[in-house]
Design goal:
Blueprint (H helix, E strand, L loop, with lengths): L15 E3 L2 E2 L4 H5 L1 E10 L7 H5 L5 E6 L5 E5 L13 E4 L1 E11 L2 E12 L4 E11 L8 E6 L3 E3 L2 E3 L4 E5 L6 E2 L3 E6 L11 H5 L3 E9 L8 E2 L4 E5 L13 E9 L5 E11 L15 E2 L19 E3 L23 E5 L5 H10 L1 E7 L5 E10 L3 E4 L2 E3 L18 E3 L7 E4 L1 E2 L3 E2 L5 H4 E4 L15
Parallel strand pairs: 3-9, 18-21, 27-28
Antiparallel strand pairs: 1-3, 2-5, 3-6, 4-5, 4-7, 7-8, 8-9, 10-13, 10-29, 11-12, 13-18, 14-17, 15-16, 15-23, 16-22, 16-25, 19-20, 23-26, 24-25, 29-32, 30-31
Length: about 450
């Protein structure tokens, strides 16, 4: 989640060569180790001050062997006044996940480097150090619930019962008109797309599309510790009204072959049961998109969000609109525009669209239009995928979420929820592995029927 905090400037592009001394002396391990150097530089230039770097003294860097799971932990010694230090580390040959994290006056300073192969003496290891602010009092909306997984009822996949809840964690009224939710174009389950470094290296997150709460900027007040529910289809998904009944007919014939009597029993509806569906008829907003979903249903009692499309991206695997994959492959994130008027959306689209060269299915180079959101605008996001795909590529910047939440499969009815409650607030340290939990439906939540706020 992006917080409203400005870090002190650090002149130039900082490149540190940090060496660390092991916490423990293990002679047997020392015999098989090789000397390497860990080079750390900021993820964004000028994002971390020399004072903050100096405060990293005492932080612990952990090297975890991917195969053996052996852990090697090193202490960061006190840095020089200019934030530089050159010492060596010693670990055995192998492939490692490298991590470090320290809270410095409310700023979480961390690094994550995965699948680093160390195989030669004096090897230089490059890693990015990232800073973000946790639990600031002046940040804006977060996800408190995210139900992308959807239900499965008697074999029927229920995309329309997806929903999300945006929560005001502050002690002041926030205005939701202009509040937007995008879905990443990079799938978390896949290797980097050909355009990934070009965009992410500039602090841009390409999107397939996004939705926006309409209004002039001050039309949708949200009280402190209140929330907004956005449903894909704002109806009672448990209701049988309008569905076709399953009828059993027992016919009795007379001796002459004429019908003597007919007994009709209604066994159910549609051949499916809906015990795993929820009531979303009381949602605050609805996503109505007959262009992307031909059989979409519009509840006239619930206002619709606005939606903006980039150019169709099917050549590169994109859906060309706002879409929440039931396995969580396209990650959702929140950002804020000045209002939710159509001209504001059009202007944002024009300013933040560009082209990228990709390969189509026949391996021909083609140019497609890409819409991207600056990472600096992102207020919150949750990195998601499924088991066993896991996170292959970070579709969200790690300043937004350095953790992850995995569902066990498609349409398993699993809700991603932040730990906490509306009254006391929710955990938010930009690490969804710690901040969030996965709940089973209907045991842990009841949906949002009409009048739920009362």
């Amino acid at each position: 989640m992006k917080k409203n905090f400005r870090f002190l400037a650090l002149a130039g592009v900082m490149s540190l060569s940090l060496g660390f001394t092991a916490c423990e002396d293990d002679e047997e391990k020392a015999e098989s180790t090789i000397k390497s150097t860990l080079n750390i530089s900021p993820d964004v230039a000028d994002a971390i001050s020399a004072k903050d770097i100096k405060a990293l003294a005492g932080a612990k860097v952990t090297f975890t062997n991917v195969n053996s799971k052996d852990v090697y932990t090193f202490d960061v010694p006190e840095l020089d006044a200019d934030g530089s230090l050159s010492l060596d580390i010693n670990v055995p040959v192998g492939t490692y996940d490298i991590s470090m994290e320290k809270d410095v006056d409310g700023k979480i300073i961390f690094l994550r480097q995965q699948n680093v192969t160390i195989k030669s003496e004096n090897q230089q290891i490059e890693a990015k150090i990232i800073a973000t602010v946790a639990n600031s009092s002046d940040y804006q909306f977060i996800f408190s619930e995210l139900f992308f997984n959807g239900e499965r009822n008697g074999g029927r996949m229920m995309h329309p019962d997806q929903f999300m809840v945006l929560y005001n964690p502050t002690d002041k009224v926030l205005y939701a008109d202009g509040l937007a939710v995008g879905n990443t174009m990079q799938a978390s389950c896949r290797e980097k797309e050909s355009w990934y470094d070009e965009f992410y290296g500039k602090g841009l997150v390409p999107v397939d599309g996004f939705i926006v709460i309409p209004g002039s900027g001050y039309d949708v007040p949200v009280k402190p510790h209140d929330k907004i529910v956005i449903a894909f289809t704002a109806i009672n998904h448990t209701a049988t009204e309008g569905k076709n009944p399953i009828v059993k007919r027992d016919t009795t014939f007379a001796a002459d072959g004429s019908v003597e009597s007919i007994k009709v029993d209604t066994l159910g509806w549609d051949g499916y049961t809906y015990e795993n569906a929820i009531d979303l008829s009381g949602a605050d907003y609805e996503i109505y998109d007959p262009q992307l979903y031909k059989n979409d249903v519009d509840n006239p009692k619930v206002p619709n969000v606005r939606e903006i499309y980039p150019a169709q991206n099917e050549v590169n695997g994109g859906g060309g609109g706002f879409y929440q994959h039931p396995r969580g492959y396209y990650n959702a994130f929140i950002f804020k525009l000045k209002n939710g008027n159509q001209e504001t959306l059009d202007a944002f689209f024009a300013e933040h669209s560009s082209t990228a060269t990709v390969q189509d299915k026949e391996n021909n180079n083609v140019e497609i239009q890409m819409l991207s959101v600056p990472a600096s605008m992102i207020l919150d996001g949750i990195a998601t995928s499924d088991i066993p795909s896991d996170i292959v590529t970070n579709a969200l910047p790690q300043t937004v979420d350095r953790g992850k939440q995995l569902v066990k499969g498609c349409h398993s009815g699993l809700l991603v929820k932040r730990k906490g409650n509306d009254k006391d607030g929710y955990a938010d340290t930009n690490d969804s592995s710690v901040d969030c939990e996965i709940l089973s439906p209907h045991k842990d939540y009841v949906g949002y029927p009409e009048g739920w706020r009362k």
